[in-house]
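Narrative of activities, Objective 1.

The group set out to show that a structural description can be obtained from nothing but a protein's sequence at a throughput compatible with the screening campaign. Below is one input-output pair from the validation batch, recorded exactly as produced.
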Amino acid sequence: MRIILSSSRFRHVARAIIFLIVVALVAGMAGCSCIPFTHRLTITSTEGGSVTTPGEGTFSYFSMQCCPSQELVAEADEGYRFVEWTGDVCLPDYADAAITWIMFLHECSITAHFWPECIPMVAAGGLHTAGLKDNGRVFALGNNSYGQCNVGDWRGITQVATGYKHTVALKSDGTVVAVGDNSHGQCYIEGWGNIAEVAAGGYHTVGVKTDGAVVATGDNYNGQCDLGDWENITKVAAGYRHTVGLTGDGTVVAVGLKASGQCNVGNWTDITQVAAGGNNTLGLKADGTVVAVGNNDDGQCDVRGFTDIVQISAGYGNTVGLKADSTVVAVGNNDDGQCDVRGWTEMIQVTTGGKHTVGLKADGTVVATGYNYCGQCDVDGWRDIVQVAAGKKHTVGIRDWGELVAVGDNEYGQCDVGSWTDIVQVAAGNKHTVGIKSDGTVVAVGRSFEGQCDVGNWTDITQVTADHYQTVGLKSDGTVVAVGDNEYGQCGVGGWTNITQVDTGSWHTAGLKADGSVVAVGRNDNGQCYVGRLTDIVQVAAGSFHTVRLKSEGIVFAVGFNNEGQCDVSSWTNIIQVAAGDGHTVGLKSDRTVVAVGANYSGQCNVGGWNNITQVATGDAHTVGIKSDGTVVAVGSNRDGQCNVGGGWMLIS
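Output recorded for this entry:
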């Protein structure tokens, strides 16, 4: 069982709880008198729903067990959705499940979080793309040189906007968050409140308040932030160096750079939406036609033929319009194919950035066209993948030319692998990612508080494995190196020799020797290190609290914690590869189908229909497989987008 907590501030409390539980159990085994324990659990919820089982309030439990359990059921009100549980309790189930159960000790509390349902959307920045899911979470890809794609931990978002090198989002409580380039102060949004809409320009950020006033921060060289006297504004748009506002009566105001006439909007009427490009401005009229002013060097203002338009977007040299029939039209610069939208259908929103255009389809998938140097158009699923690795809440894949892709939780930058090249193998830990380069050196990103990314001096490495807070490397001479958390001795591999393969679990490490035997070190309270008797082993896999061994004849053995049936593999045959997650085990069969046992709370074992699989990997609560055509499939928990590896970004849950 791994402690699953939604907020890092509860991590140390949870570890203390586990310690106390162990102490209590030991005391009980030593013959302590049977005195009932008294426990109190306080259950609360945020606006938008309630906890129906067992209810809300403070509950007292008198139990002979040192750690009682309780089922929890959360129900959302209309217009809201359940998001997650947070609290100082143990969660054997997953924190993003509305129906779950918990273990707790003494005085504990837990809160059910609900957020307003939001409309999915996409936003195209200078060289990056962001997508808002209907659960209020955001994903981003493309250029991340300024951290503009580090949005994985955002929650409760209702709108997202992208500037040239920064990303801004509006939260359901009317506050704003921002990441990325802050050289002009465009991310200084602390203190903003009662915001109804945001816009991101070249180097400035604009927000419309609920009372129709406007605030702005960032580059003001051309006066694009001089909005203090604006009132009755309902929508805003931010261009490269100008800002446009739509008033409640359908007229438009604009400030900022005027050199190309992009602010000449004083005579516009009956406008329902505005858009600001590099040096031009667009207005959508109530009758579905479009007006435009400003730079027209590339024909981006040639919109007289636009009819039946329901939404517009302005790029740095092109204009895109969504028609009432869900098709798309575009004019302007097409040097990189950013206007190649003729075949797009069933679209519900479009956006265009520096040199690329992105569209959201009615089924929640995303399409993109145009400049893709930074991967900002890679929204149609992973391709050409030769190896995958699954971390706790993120997934990493190596393309066949040695570059990496990653999706999922990026709280510590564990998905910031876009610049890596010449990678031959990758491993994903709890919140870090490790890669071997073709020259045998190793690179790592992500959380390194415990030193798990201190691999800069490693050489002659042929395999790496990562889990929880440690990293283990196999050298070409059969010895093993390890860095990171060593609380249970899981990094005590210095004396190992003749090793051919390694794997590390939450707090233990297993190694396969050249003679087919297995060694293991680390935490052994569930027998996960009792691996010494079997021989003729060809692969080992280490889960959180269990260890799996594959024999040469294709049968599988498992030892350790079996509370979810993760060790029930005795009937498996013809297995050629195994993988172990937090509470589940997966096997790849010789016919390229997949079997799985164990915890299935999030669907991580729903692999029965998989075929043509060449490799499998497991995270905490998700399973990933590579197909023979180089595409990737995934099932299980997708709370942080760790399963968004194929078929396009799914922005509708």
